[in-house]
Amino acid sequence: MSDVIVQSGQEVVGVSRITGPIMIVEGAANVSYDEVVEIRDGRGNLRRGRVLEVGEKTCVVQVFAGSTGLSIDGTRVRFLGDTLRIPVAEEMLGRVFDGLGNPLDGGPQPLTDHFADVNGQPINPTARIYPRDYIQTGVSAIDGLNTLLRGQKLPIFSGAGMPHDQLAAQIVRQATLGAPTDAPSAEAEQFAIVFAAMGVKHDVANFFRRSFTDSGALTRVAMFLNLADDPPVERLVTPRAALTLAEYLAYEKGMHVLVVLTDMTNYCEALRQISNIRGEVPSRKGYPGYLYSDLASLYERTGRIRTSEGSITQIPILTMPSDDITHPVPDLTGYITEGQITLGRELDHSGIYPPIAVLPSLSRLMKDGIGQGRTRGDHPRWGAQLYAAYAHMQDVRSLASVIGEEELGEVDQKYLKFGRAFEKEFINQSPTENRTIEQTLSIGWRLLSMLPKDELTRVSLDELKQYYQGEDAKH
Fold first, then answer.
1. pLDDT at 130 over 50
2. Is the model's pLDDT at 184 over the cut of 70?
3. In terms of C-beta density within 10 A (0-12 exposed, 13-18 middle, 19 or more buried), how is residue 7 classed?
4. Which stretches within 264-312 are classed as H helix?
5. CATH code for position 74
6. Contact by Cβ (8 Å): 228, 260
7. pLDDT of residue 411
8. pLDDT at position 180, please?
């Protein structure tokens, strides 16, 4: 645990009950919610925790490292009189930490006298700036049809076994604040990345470290790793510690910060486990009734404010149990965030990477960050046309599965051909391929040119004249 600057507090010898990582302590006065505690067992070994609940003479303490080895009579609990704080500094970029901010890379503790509360500071809603600058991820299905904006929170909904880890690593390697295509001399701004992994296996953690190191991206990445065999209670602190560093870099150092949180489902499972141990009344599927507000306390630590040039953009990643988008975790996440990128099982089985299902995916802020002077003037209508054509192709594909492809009309057969090319050439791309927005738009126009000109009703005549490449381009 990172050192915490606090004043000396009271100490209680003995606890009334220990259940899993939860302790019930009696006899402590003037204890505060979220207060940090030091816990020593009979051998003098030190571990830390925090107060979850307070009463007149009783409080509930959450032990970060678990309660193994603690006895009811021999445990000493010292209340430190302050909330959990971690050191924050620019030097933390390029470093790897555990879920509580301890270095895992063999390096020293960050040399700083700046300590920040992991719960963050509330942002005045009137101080927020509406997101309008797009972020170029190099992934066509995101940049073209579900554009990510600086200051947005856009989750990735995945499922077990799908390549969300590879997609997250690719976005971290490639994310830049894209320069407008009509201003080629403008340089794209690099993002500082804060990456938090919760409940991941060792091979997944090693994949991320190796991926960032080999690509050179680790120099601008601060990694917080909570592994699958780490105590679940630490999982609840990991995203808060990561966001605390992000807020310092963005709002005090003026940096553009991209925060990637994976896997939020593991975080919610830990929250459910602690809630059950505490004996709280469960809500849907056993999750606590405050799951919505707890998730909001993380997701809303995102955005831009008037008093700083910096910004925080958030990409939470979650795996939907049984691919169920109505499960409480993706359901509540969708209410809080501004859209979602959904990965499709059928595309994944077809060998398409990244298997982004275009139709159920959505970026609610996309319309405000694209167009003339931002991406390109034809982007909004190009996106609407590409989406509409692919949606119609799905209807044609369903019809063909009933009557046979050879029974379709000429135009419908062109739609089928367009759909196959769209999935193989637009959605599908190499994990190392970093496409510019100009390349993405060009691929889209080439695919739209496979359709008859009179089918393209959502783009302007001037755009057709400039970009359409089909057989009837001259007509």
1. yes
2. no
3. exposed
4. 264-277, 291-299
5. 2.40.10.170
6. no
7. 94
8. 60
- CA nearest 432: which of 170, 141, 219? 170
475 within domain boundaries: no
Compute CA distances 110 → 2, 51, 115, 219, whole Å.
9, 26, 11, 15
Judge whether residue 112 has pLDDT over 90: no
How confident is residue 191, by pLDDT bands cut at 50, 70 and 90?
A: confident
Do 179 and 312 have their domain in common?
Answer: yes
Amino acid at 18: I
- Per the rule left: phi > 0, alpha: psi between -120 and 50, beta: everything else, 367 is alpha
77 and 112 co-located in one domain: no
Closest by CA to 104, choosing from 208, 226, 200, 248, is 226
**Dihedral sign, CA of 434, 419, 397, 326?**
positive
CA distances from 229 to 132, 164, 252, 291 (A): 41, 21, 34, 23
Q: HSE-up of 336 (CA within 13 Å, CB side)?
A: 23
CA distance 437 to 109: 40
- Looking at the structure, tell me whether residues 78 and 94 fall in a common domain: no
Number of compact structural domains in the chain? 3
Instruction: Say whether both 461 and 406 belong to one domain.
Output: yes
Query: Is 473 a member of any domain?
Result: no
- To the nearest 10 degrees (0 to 180), the angle between helices 437-448 and 379-403 is 40
Q: Is the pLDDT of residue 179 over 60?
A: no
3-state secondary structure 82-102: EECEEECCHHHCCCEEECCCC
- Regarding whether 290 and 155 lie in a shared domain, the answer is yes
| Structural domain containing residue 341 | 87-368
pLDDT of residue 472: 66
Nearest CA-CA partner of 334 in 274, 264, 281: 264
pLDDT at residue 7, rounded to an integer: 41
Cis peptide before 263 (omega within 30 of 0): yes
Q: In which band, very low, low, confident or very high, does the pLDDT at 254 lie, cut at 50, 70 and 90? A: very high
240 with 171, same domain: the answer is yes
Within a domain: 460: yes
CA distance 18 to 278: 11
Q: Which of 82, 99, 123 is the last residue of a domain?
A: 82
Q: Does residue 113 surpass a pLDDT of 90? A: no
Percent of the chain with pLDDT over 90: 70
Residue identified by tokens 């080999």 is 214
Residue 444 in domain: yes
